[in-house]
Amino acid sequence: MTARASDRARYDRATAHLDAPLAIVDLDAFDANADDLLRRAGDKPVRVASKSVRCRALLERVLAKEGFAGIMSFTLAESLWLARSGFDDVLLAYPSADRAGFAELTADPKLASAVSVMVDDVAQLDLIDATRGDGREVVRVCLELDTALRLLGGRVRVGARRSPLHSPAEVADLARAVSRRPGFKVVGIMAYEGHIAGVGDSLAGRPLRSRAIRLMQAAARRELVERRAAVVRAVRAVVPDLEYVNGGGTGSVQSTAAEDAVTEIAAGSGLYVPRLFDNYTSFSGRPAALFAQPVVRRPGVGVVTVLGGGYPASGAAGPDRLPVPYLPEGLRYDPQEGPGEVQTPLLGSPADDLLIGDKVWFRHAKAGELCERFDSLHLVEGDRVTATVPTYRGEGHTFL
Question: Interior CA angle at 92 toward 86 and 95, to 5°?
Answer without folding.
Answer: 150
